[in-house]
Write a structure and sequence with these properties.
The protein is of the alpha+beta class. About 35% of the residues lie in helices and about 25% in strands. Strands 1-2-3 form a 3-stranded antiparallel sheet, with helices on one face. The two termini are about 30 Å apart.
Length: about 200
């Protein structure tokens, strides 16, 4: 059954005993056959633990399904000349554009800095009005509010597979941050400083 197969995968992936993908899948399938007969006998606590493990595995595998080697991002020109020429991130496989137009150098840096299934995208404004927002490839949704380019990159880099600090989109002294669970798509707690938010990310 799918539930048990993915559950066992989470257990196996958490150990170092099985390094090869074939060994992982073979062991997962073998144990899932055994556990499939026990599903109706599970108590509530064990069922809840299995659901948590399932969520972890689904999240992990989604990174390969939604964003992997098959996705090719590049910066394409808007066709204008001189100061009016801008570039937008484009998926070469689907011709889908992501975010607003920006300079070529910034566009390339956004592609280079993508990490953990996320990327910072421009709002398409110029100079001081240009802000950036985190885009989650797995869900196809933006995360948090707009912030500076350096802050946007920092939020991605300091995140882990499940938790990230997100900006409220305000500027300067009014900008605050909230811990966000990418697996459950829920905000945790209230707004605080960046340092405090980062300290609350589980290690």
């Amino acid at each position: 059954m799918k539930t048990f197969t993915l559950t066992i995968l989470s257990i196996i992936l958490s150990t170092s005993a099985f390094a090869q993908s074939r060994e992982l899948s073979d062991r997962a399938l073998a144990i899932s056959d055994r556990l499939s007969t026990l599903e109706k006998q599970l108590d509530r606590r064990d069922a809840r633990d299995i659901e948590r493990a399932l969520s972890d595995v689904e999240y992990l595998l989604a990174r390969y399904n939604d964003y992997g080697d098959s996705v090719q991002l590049t910066c394409l020109s808007n066709g204008q000349s001189s100061a009016w020429e801008k570039f937008r991130i484009t998926d070469l496989n689907t011709n889908k554009t992501l975010g607003g137009e920006t300079s070529r150098s910034i566009c390339q840096s956004l592609i280079e800095s993508q990490t953990k299934g996320m990327i910072c995208l421009s709002n398409g404004q110029s100079s001081a009005w240009e802000k950036f927002r985190i885009y989650d490839f797995r869900t196809g949704q933006y995360l948090g509010g707009e912030t500076t380019l350096s802050a946007c990159k920092n939020l991605m880099e300091t995140s882990n597979k499940a938790f990230i600090c997100l900006s409220n989109g305000q500027s300067s002294a009014w900008e605050k941050f909230t811990l966000f669970n990418r697996q459950t798509q829920m905000k945790l707690g209230g707004e605080t400083t960046l340092a405090t938010c980062l300290s609350s990310i589980p290690k």
